[in-house]
Each structure stands twice: as structure tokens, then as C-alpha cells.
Amino acid sequence: MADSWSPPDGVDKGSEVFTVSLGMFKDTGYRCPAADAMKARGCRPRARPESTRETLEHFAFGPFMKASHASVHDGLQQWTAHAHEHYGAAFPEDPASPMTEVPAWSYRYQLPEPDQRGAREYRITVWGRCLRSPDGTRRELRLPVNRIKDAEPHRGHVAAAALATAEGIPGPLPERVRIVEFALLDGRTRTLFEGTRAEAVERYRKGGGPEALSAVLDGREFRPGSSCTGCAYLAVCPALRRAPGLLGVTGEGRPRRTWSVTNGRSYRACPARDHMRRLHLPAAQAVERSPSAERGRAVHAYLAERHGLHRPCTVDVPAQWVPDGFELPEEEQRLGALLLRRHAAVCPLRCVRDRSAVRVEPRVVRHDPFSDVLVIAEPDLLYRDGDSWVWRETKTSATGWGRPEGLLERYPQLALAALLLSRGDLGGSPTRARIELEVLRPAGADLEIVDPRAPEIRAAAEETVRGLVADWHRDDHYAPTPGAACTRCEVARWCSARANEKEAA
Ligand code: SF4
Ligand code: SF4
Predict the structure, then answer these.
(1) Is residue 313 located within the same domain as residue 189?
(2) Residue 75 is assigned to a structural domain of this protein
(3) Average per-residue pLDDT for the chain
(4) Which residue has the least CA distance to atom 5 on ligand 1?
(5) Number of domains in the chain
(6) SS3 for 424-487, per residue?
(7) Ligand nearest to C-alpha 490
(8) pLDDT tier at 503, thresholds 50, 70, 90
């Protein structure tokens, strides 16, 4: 059967050696399947503009894996020291059964002639800490993660790891293989596979390995998002939409980055904090999952699920309304139910008849080539009114009525929404395009309408967004600014500059 996969215009078909890295088997929703397939097949873009490297290391596992060549931020240094400590505790040296670190293995499978994909050789490369016993009879692959999740491990990922560890080169092939995940945060471990070499190969064959390999190599979906930053195919990507000048800053010689309003707010509070959040260093759960923040997220998750069914919400909110994965104290559960009943009066689906006209929490990604920044936004809801897009944001509040003034500064996501709508970056007609800010309060729901075409709104939106972006865009070092924000900083644990409560007061 002929290969029906083909790269987009501007990309040359690659080599006969297909190389899949272990991480590609782990579809987290944030990887771009089309980019992974092109990379694995060795496809080359015909044009690849020069890019500037970051001054600081931006890969959080880099220093731990000794794969870092850039300078390392204080936060990442603290985190790496912590990670080494827990790694040592999780895997103490055992003189009776010593293991030595060795270079990463790579599995290779050669074919006598090219197959239907045009591949003559398949490779699976391992990423993680690779160890073997002195006599080479045992191999162990240790996969670092921040935390061990409750969710089941990715089946195809475990299958591919088992095969590559059992059959990979260099080195003598082992008799026994172990794959273990370990959490750098607390040293917990989870064994993903343990068995003989033959069992590891069997695990690949019967455990979803070939299917997972095909899924990577034949990926067609272009999924714009954070992975676009390092993507070699960005200049020719048919799915990534451009928004020249969206952020109002220029970026000659600046490294390509992503930006969201959440980053902007976090940077404004403290540049070091934003940098550590971007590195995904583990955040303090007590801050990140405070009861009120958790209630807000639970309300959003409930509404997203309801709106996904394309039915208008009603005041009938079940007693057990809290979605899976959230834990709320009773008081917050009661308040959440009340706020959801308030939402029924302003639910946008009351006036939308066409199901295809509703997008629930869509990921909106635009590349601003002037700043070379990928702007990422996630409106709570987009729906069409006639030919125009309406951007709905929902907030929850435990207090009484709020002020309608200064909305764009208070909620900068509205400023970004105003720019995207007024510039026509979302498409559709500008005639009825608008932003709706819904604030759910115990006493009722506010619905503020913002007209993105009003000159004063556009000017305020530009000023707000530029104000959040400009300093960050020039910054390479993300210095900490200790102060009042430290007391509510979710990554304070990794910051040696944090102010104590007395200093912050
Ligand atoms: S630019 Fe983004 S969407 Fe396009 S191929 Fe690359 S990662 Fe995928
Ligand atoms: S603890 Fe304070 S100085 Fe350190 S990152 Fe957090 S807010 Fe910034």
C-alpha cells in the first residue's frame, strides 16, 4: 500500500532513516503530531530562517541530565540541586548490585528495501538515565518526571521504552530490563516494566508499540501551541496563523518565544516567577490550589462540559456538581452551585442555535512575526453572532457588585481579545464582534459588553498588552523582584531571593 502521508508545501521529503525519539510516543496534547512526523521522517524545510538562542537554559531537565550548555537561572539551579538529592535517595548505590551510567541506547531495525513509507531503517532513541550492570546482563532506564501522576502511563511509550532498552545499541544486549519512572520532586518511583529481554520485545509487539509508532510517523494533525517555538517548519506551516504587529513590539535578534496573558501577569508580579512557571517547576499546591482558585477552576470545568453538549444551562445544578479531579470544601461547593445557577440567566447558548458556531475553551494561537512571539490564548467560549465572533470570559467572585471601569487593565485577557477581534485576527465579520465579560456573584451575574472597534478601547487594549509584553520581550535574565508578591508565590520554594513575611509586609 502506498504511503498516503506527505509533507506540506515548502518541506522536502526526508531520509530513508526514520528516527523516533521516546518522547514522541507520549501524546500529551501539547505535542504537534504533524511536526513530530516530519521530524521523525527527516523532512527538511526548504527555507529555515536564522534563529537566536536564549541566554538562559529553558529546558528544566537539562542541567539534571547534564545536557545544558546555557547559563542556568537561580530557580533552575535550586530545583536541580533538589532533584539530585532526591535522585540519590531514590537510587542509593548498592555495592551488591552495582549499576553504571552509559550513553543512551538507540534501537535500529533495517529493512532489505524501502517499505511503503519509503523507510529503509527505523530507529527509536532513548531519553533518560541509562544504566547497566558491569557484566551487561541487566539494563535499567530511569525516566525523570516532576511528579508521578495518578493516571496510567502512556501504553505506547512504555512499549517503545521496553524495546529500545532491550534491543538498543551500543553495548551487549541484556538478559533483563527494567524501566522506572522517578519523580524529581519527592523521589517517588514507579516501575513501568520489568522482565527479560524477550518479554520486553513481546511487550512492544503486544503492548501497542507498532500502533504507537505508526501514529507518530503518520501524524497529520497540525496542532499550533507552545511546541511551535522550536519548530523547524514554522515558516511553511499551513496551520499556524500570522498576526503581524499584534503585540506592538519588534524583535530583531530576539529568540522566538511564546506569550500568554497569564505569563504577562506573572512577569509583572516578578520576572523570576514567570520564568520558573514557564519551566514548569513544581508549584506549591497550597497556593496554586487554594479553595477559591479551585472553586473557580471547578466552575469553569463544569461550564465547559455543559457548553460542550451545546445545551443552554439552567438553574438545575446537581448537588454533586463538582467535576472529577477537583476537591472543594463544602462551603465552596455551595457557593459554586449558587454561582452556576446565576450563570443560567446569562448563558450564551440561550441565543445560539447553530452548534458549529460554538467553540468551548479553544486554543487560539497566532504568530506575531514582528516580535517573533507565539501568542496563546484560551477564551472560555467563542460563539458566532451572525458572521461575527463573540468572545466570552467568565469570572467568579464571592463578593458584591464590581466597578465597570478599567476592565482591560484588571482583566488583560480582554485587552488581548479586543486586539484580536478589532484587527480581524480571528476572522469573521467585525460588525457584531464583541467581548462579553460575565462575572458570577452570589447576588447575580454581571454581563459587561466591550466593543473592540471603539477607538478608546483599541487604544487602551494596545497600551495594556504592550505594557505587559515590552519589558519581558527585552529580558534575558528574569531577575527576582522580592516583595509583597513572595507571600503568594507558588514557586517561592525554588527562589533564593524570596522575601520573608516581615520583609514583604
Ligand atoms: S509551526 Fe506549530 S503547528 Fe506548525 S508544524 Fe510546527 S509545531 Fe506544528
Ligand atoms: S519568591 Fe518572590 S522574588 Fe522569588 S520568584 Fe517568587 S515572587 Fe519572585
Answers:
(1) no
(2) yes
(3) 93
(4) 35
(5) 2
(6) CCCCCCCCCCEEEEEEEECCEEEEEEECCCCHHHHHHHHHHHHHHHHHHHHCCCCCCCCCHHHH
(7) 2
(8) low
